[in-house]
Every structure is written in structure tokens, then in C-alpha cells.
Amino acid sequence: MPTTGFDSRSTSHRARRGAALLAASALGAGVLAAAPTTAQAATTRVDGATFTWGISGYAQKGTLAPWTINGATGDAHVLPGATQTEYKVAPTPATSLPADVTDVTAVKFTGGEGTVDPATGATTLTWEGSYTVAAYPAMFGVPSETYTDPVLTVRKNGSGNVTMRVQTSAGEDRDGGTVPAKDLGRVVLMTFGAGDLSGFTARGFRVTPDYQGVTAGIDGQTTSCSAAGGATGWWGSWPAAFVKEMPASLQAHFYSTGCAGMQDAKPPLPFDVSFGKAVKRGATVAVNKLVKPKPGKKGSVAVRVSSPFTGEPKGAVKVVLKKGKKSVATKRGHLAKGRVSVVLPKLKKGTYVLTAKYLGDAGHLKGSTKKRFNVK
Length: 376
Known about the structure:
Elements: H1 13-27, E1 44-53, H2 57-61, E2 68-74, E3 76-79, E4 106-116, E5 123-126, E6 129-134, E7 145-154, E8 160-168, E9 171-172, E10 178-179, E11 182-192, E12 197-201, E13 204-207, H3 240-245, H4 248-251, E14 271-274, E15 284-291, E16 299-306, E17 316-323, E18 326-334, E19 339-344, E20 350-358, E21 367-375
Antiparallel strand pairs: 1-4, 1-14, 2-6, 3-4, 4-5, 5-7, 6-7, 7-8, 8-11, 9-10, 12-13, 13-14, 15-16, 16-19, 17-18, 17-20, 20-21
């Protein structure tokens, strides 16, 4: 089957990364704003990131056979399902992988570069290289697809997208008509929400892209499925702009045209991102509730420690009470689900400053907050 034959090394390393980043920024310009957050550490430069992905359950099984995934160039590598051990996903309903698929072929990009803001979690990473997929055997003449130079953007709230340059080869449509080769340019291939990151460590995370409930804006999309009898009830689409630009003979691979069966295999599979090194994230410390001590009665303080979309920080919180420059008491507690409550001693009348200090863990930086209160 013909391919686009795009050479990932045809322009300079810096120019390609810069152009990809500018294009990706333009695609997401309308949704990049987020509330300001006080930084706790300088932006961290990353230069050995990886991006590993199994495309979709539909690609892993196919309608006739698993899709052919090959033609890797540059920093892209194909991990054959029969031998690879790096990329693993659970079957439906946890993901779109059909339960009877045991060998998952994945694509891995290495050498990614970019930045991670430890305080906010905002991340931008770019990779070079390409891979090609063919959804049908060559005898059918269906256009192949080439995906080039991924760019990952994670915003401060944990939402974001993956863009790639997408090209399709010349081929035939369902009626045997000629389909010309097409360069879609850089498109948003996947989006994800603030709650779609999981498995976070200091070295990376997993992302489950959007699909459920997304409309493609194409006639014939199924937009209602029942979950009765153990069915998933799934229906949805990959990003509409991407789907609409694909040749008609390929569009239905990316949105629901029915319910259950192979329709459940159409959502994109999760992708894994590794920074190539440990990058600790900032932690926000807050006093949720303060029960003020009295001269004849103890009090308490409830402390919550959170981190942008990275899960719940673990470890210890130290609470220090001072009256003027004098330390009055020091207490320590351990977080459980990001929270801890510490008993405060009886206090004499006066003005006190309470400092709650989070001591950090393997994936999070230290943080603290202060609260002034009076005992009468």
C-alpha cells in the first residue's frame, strides 16, 4: 500500500521542533488560559522524554486483521505486540482493548524535549519522527495514514491535547474511486480533561484521552447507547476536526457508528509519558479547618495537601505554633488521602502564628502555609 513517505529528518532538528510547537500552540490558543498559581520551583527542562501509545483497540484487532503499524522514522519505534513488554493496558471496560487481544503493538517516541513546571504541572513536550498505519490489507487499496512529530500540551488544570502532523496516502474509496493523497497538516489528534491523568510518579504519568460523549458532527454517528445487560453504553468520537479531515473511507474508524461489539474498541487507548528523569511537582498546603485552642481546652487543625492533577501527595506534615518569636509547640502527622488532622495544645491568651509544613515525598516538593489567630 502506498505511503506518504515523509522524511522526519528533512529539516533541521530545532526548526522542526519549533514549527511543531508553534502550530500546536496555535491549535490550542483558545483554551490555554488558567488561573494564576504561585510557583514553587523553576521550570524544569526535559530532554529525554518518551511517548508510548497503542492507538486504539480497533487498531489492535481490526475489522479483518490488526492494523499494520510500521514505517517508523526518526525517534519513532514500533514495539511488536508479540515481544514488547513496555506498554500494557487492561481490556474493556477499563480501556477500548478487546478482551481477546493479547498482543498489543505500540508506538514509542524517544528523545522528547520540552519543559515541566513543577509548581503548576503545566507541560509541553515535543518529539520527532513518524509511523504509518494501514487499517486494511494492501489488496483493498485503502489509504494508509502517517503520523508525525507529536506535541503534548498539559495545562495548569491538567487538561490538554496531543497534536501531530497527519498525512494519508493515495488510494481507493469504498466504491473503487480514486482518493488523492492528503496532508491534513498539524491537527489535534487527542484531547483529555483535568481528571484523565493517572499513574503519576515523579518520572511520568498515563493519560486516557477523551471519547465518551464527544460528537463528530457527522451524519450517521450513533449518539445514544444503552448500558443495560452489562453493555458499556459507550458512544463518542475522536476530535471532530481530525475526523472530518480524514478520507471518508477512514472516518468511521474514529467515531461510533453503532453500539457494543467493535464499537467499544474505537476510543483511543491510554498513552504513557515518561520524562526520562525525576521531576517533582509542587504541592499546595491549605488549612481546611482550625478549631482554636483555649486556655482550658485543646484545639485542632485540619490540613490538606494537594498537587495539580498528580494524585494525592503522601508523607508528613509538621505543624509549628509560635507566639512572637517563641516556639510554643511542634506537632507532626501523616497524610491520608491528602489530609491530616493535628491536635493543638491548650494555649494562653495571645496572638499565635500556625505554620503547616508539608515535608514532601518522592514525587512532590515541600510546601507550607501560615495562619494567624488569637486566643481570648
